[in-house]
């Protein structure tokens, strides 16, 4: 596929072979593999928030140092990334290297196997970022390619790919969405002032990033307390080509007003089994009855929601944290001192030895604010050994 009338070319020039990767089952790693895989990951990102229950996947075809095809999976039921890339490349795919962010599928689902499509096109080498945890694939795609004589390298930018696919990996292995807890606080740990005088905690660049997250994740969750206090729309604003996540309101007693701006066809209301929620169902909302948060998350998984952005207040956030259901934290810290106010969590006090520690930390400056993100739960993965 062409960009601006010219092929994209890797700046590194000619390829030089390196020693094999440390991951079991991997083949040869070339110096340019990581750069081309980064391009494939950028392609995959174009499908974020739109592919559930399928994963976001990107594919780039490279021949003699030039991109000859690229593609991403736009939504479930449509062709996979490899197919779009092969269509763009045509005959130029023969002898090319395919960079794919997720192991090519080897089974018939809504679409034919991508491994077979790569073989039919004459692809000479396949570089895979991460293996597919789906039991229907789980290394079979890699084996199919290798048995046909195609050189396959596994594990290039694997951690980045797994994080990009966290929702899919959670849904296919745990049956529930990947939960991202997002909050904004002042430097002294306050998410809101008490009483009057509330306003945005963070700057415009930080708020713009939150809108991007809403666009990239399947669902957006708040508690009924937030609905009653703020009446949020739970939509995406200011993102070109953006789409709204599915609103989810945790409301055990079905107190959501019929006038709530977040209440519309497609909104999910999670109530207790004994709540009288008939009036809410009459609006076109989906009412899920669950006796516990784990049960509620599995019910959301049954709706093919693979990722959930948790923006609720301290009460709902604490319930998720105490239940061990927050997988990832994204905290936006503003350089402000508020004094009295609400804290992000309101659970029982912990000793420092019992504090929950984030792993795989990332930090970023957004205008005057600081973004700190990390994991509380591991991303479900299938190691490269599964390709043996």
From TrEMBL:
EC number: 3.5.4.26, 1.1.1.193
Cofactor note: Binds 1 zinc ion.
Pfam families, A to Z: dCMP_cyt_deam_1, RibD_C
CDD domains linked to this entry: Riboflavin_deaminase-reductase
UniProt-annotated stretches for the region Disordered: 1-27
Entry keyword Secreted: no
The keyword Amino-acid biosynthesis belongs to this UniProt entry's keyword annotation: no
Source organism, top-level taxon: Bacteria
Boundaries of every CMP/dCMP-type deaminase domain copy: 31-153
Pathway participation: Cofactor biosynthesis; riboflavin biosynthesis; 5-amino-6-(D-ribitylamino)uracil from GTP: step 2/4; Cofactor biosynthesis; riboflavin biosynthesis; 5-amino-6-(D-ribitylamino)uracil from GTP: step 3/4
Record-linked PROSITE patterns: CYT_DCMP_DEAMINASES_1 (PS00903), CYT_DCMP_DEAMINASES_2 (PS51747)
Keywords linked to the UniProt accession: Hydrolase, Metal-binding, Multifunctional enzyme, NADP, Oxidoreductase, Riboflavin biosynthesis, Zinc
Reactions catalysed, as given in the entry: 5-amino-6-(5-phospho-D-ribitylamino)uracil + NADP(+) = 5-amino-6-(5-phospho-D-ribosylamino)uracil + NADPH + H(+); 2,5-diamino-6-hydroxy-4-(5-phosphoribosylamino)-pyrimidine + H2O + H(+) = 5-amino-6-(5-phospho-D-ribosylamino)uracil + NH4(+)
Compositional bias annotation for Basic residues: 7-17
Cofactor list: Zn(2+)
General function of this protein: Converts 2,5-diamino-6-(ribosylamino)-4(3h)-pyrimidinone 5'-phosphate into 5-amino-6-(ribosylamino)-2,4(1h,3h)-pyrimidinedione 5'-phosphate.
Family: In the N-terminal section; belongs to the cytidine and deoxycytidylate deaminase family. In the C-terminal section; belongs to the HTP reductase family.
Name of this chain's protein: Riboflavin biosynthesis protein RibD
Organism of origin: Deinococcus carri
């Amino acid at each position: 596929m062409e960009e601006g009338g010219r092929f994209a070319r890797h700046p590194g020039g000619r390829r030089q072979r390196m020693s094999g990767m440390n991951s079991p089952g991997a083949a040869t790693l070339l110096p340019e593999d990581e750069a081309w895989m980064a391009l494939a990951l950028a392609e995959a990102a174009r499908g974020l928030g739109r592919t559930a229950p399928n994963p976001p996947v990107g594919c780039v075809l490279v021949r003699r140092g030039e991109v000859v095809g690229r593609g991403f999976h736009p939504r479930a039921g449509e062709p996979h990334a490899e197919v779009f890339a092969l269509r763009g490349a045509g005959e130029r795919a023969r002898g090319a290297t395919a960079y794919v962010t997720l192991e090519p599928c080897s089974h018939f689902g809504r679409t034919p196997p991508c491994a077979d499509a790569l073989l039919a096109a004459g692809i000479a080498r396949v570089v895979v970022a991460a293996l597919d945890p789906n039991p229907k694939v789980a290394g079979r795609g890699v084996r199919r390619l290798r048995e046909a004589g195609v050189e396959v390298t596994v594990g290039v930018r694997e951690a980045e790919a797994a994080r990009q696919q966290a929702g899919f990996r959670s849904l296919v292995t745990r049956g529930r969405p990947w939960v991202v807890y997002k909050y904004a606080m002042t430097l002294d740990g306050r998410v809101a002032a008490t009483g009057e005088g509330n306003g945005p905690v963070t700057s415009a660049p930080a708020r713009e990033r939150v809108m991007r997250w809403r666009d990239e994740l399947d669902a957006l969750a708040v508690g009924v307390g937030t609905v009653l206090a703020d009446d949020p729309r739970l939509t995406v604003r200011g993102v070109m080509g953006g789409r709204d996540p599915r609103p989810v309101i945790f409301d055990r007693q079905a107190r959501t007003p019929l006038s709530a701006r977040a209440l519309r066809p497609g909104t999910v209301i999670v109530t207790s089994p004994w709540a009288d929620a008939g009036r809410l169902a009459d609006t076109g909302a989906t009412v899920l009855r669950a006796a516990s948060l784990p049960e509620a998350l599995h019910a959301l998984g049954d709706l093919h929601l693979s990722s959930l952005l948790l923006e609720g207040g301290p009460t709902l956030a604490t319930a998720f944290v105490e239940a061990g259901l927050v997988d990832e934290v994204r905290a936006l810290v503003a350089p402000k001192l508020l004094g009295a106010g609400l804290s992000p969590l309101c659970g029982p006090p912990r000793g420092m030895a019992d504090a929950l520690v984030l792993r795989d930390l990332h930090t970023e400056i957004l205008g005057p604010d600081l973004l700190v993100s990390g994991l509380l739960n591991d991303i479900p993965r299938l190691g490269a050994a599964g390709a043996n």
